[in-house]
Amino acid sequence: MGLQLRAFGAVMKAGRTILFPPQCLDCGAGVAEDGALCPACWREAEFIGACLCDTCGIPLPGDSGTEAGLSCDDCLARPRPWARGRAAVVYAGSGRRLVLALKHGDRPDLAPALGLWLAAAAAPLVAPGMMVVPVPLHPRRMLARKYNQAALLGAAVARAHGLGLEAAGLRRLRHTPMQDHGSVGDRFANVEGAIRVADRARSRLEGRPVLLVDDVMASGATLAAAARALAEEGAGPVSVAVLARAVKEGKPGAAATEPPE
């Protein structure tokens, strides 16, 4: 019976592939398997390697892992309220298009595959008893978007590593303007005190290591506000993992301005 069920499953999978052939996550061209990129989009995806800032995940000049533990200029100049950080891809090319499709293009179907990219990048941060907490959306933005892309990514990361998920562990206290204009100082002031731990999540997060998840980071203002809120309630240590890290064009290790929220 077991052999027959496996054979039936294989037939069903083959039939589904014929009816719904795998498509590139970005452009929709035919690919060999689900969740893959076509060769053209793959060449545009700048996956972040081993040479990176251990605090924020931004790529640093170099081509090996011997630089582990280094911090970028931004993290040295503005200490982060979290311990370590990782990012899967640079916010450019097909990586940027996929983030925008997930975030603003009504493509929540991208989250499982992109979440696996993030889970792989975040693997060095995983610790026993860790809880995954996504950066929250304000209810007004949630109503317009209908889903929180950070929560979808966080759920995929939690599944991949067998971690607990506190999907509503943080709350937005006020609706903040988009973070795509203004100085770095303005962006930090914009989100100061705007995020706090949800009342019902306090006891579950207290004393637990936390993996704070978001879709993209540039200045890190939103993640800093969220990390401080967690620390104030006794959670931690806090690490951060983002799908994409914004980088100034032509300047590895330098953060770009905040992409639109």
TrEMBL record:
Residues 196-246 form the Phosphoribosyltransferase domain. Gene3D superfamilies: 3.40.50.2020. Residues 18-76 form the Double zinc ribbon domain. It holds the Pfam family DZR_2. InterPro entries: ComF/GntX_DNA_util-trans, DZR_2, PRTase-like, PRTase_dom. Belongs to the ComF/GntX family. This is Double zinc ribbon domain-containing protein. It comes from Paracoccus niistensis.
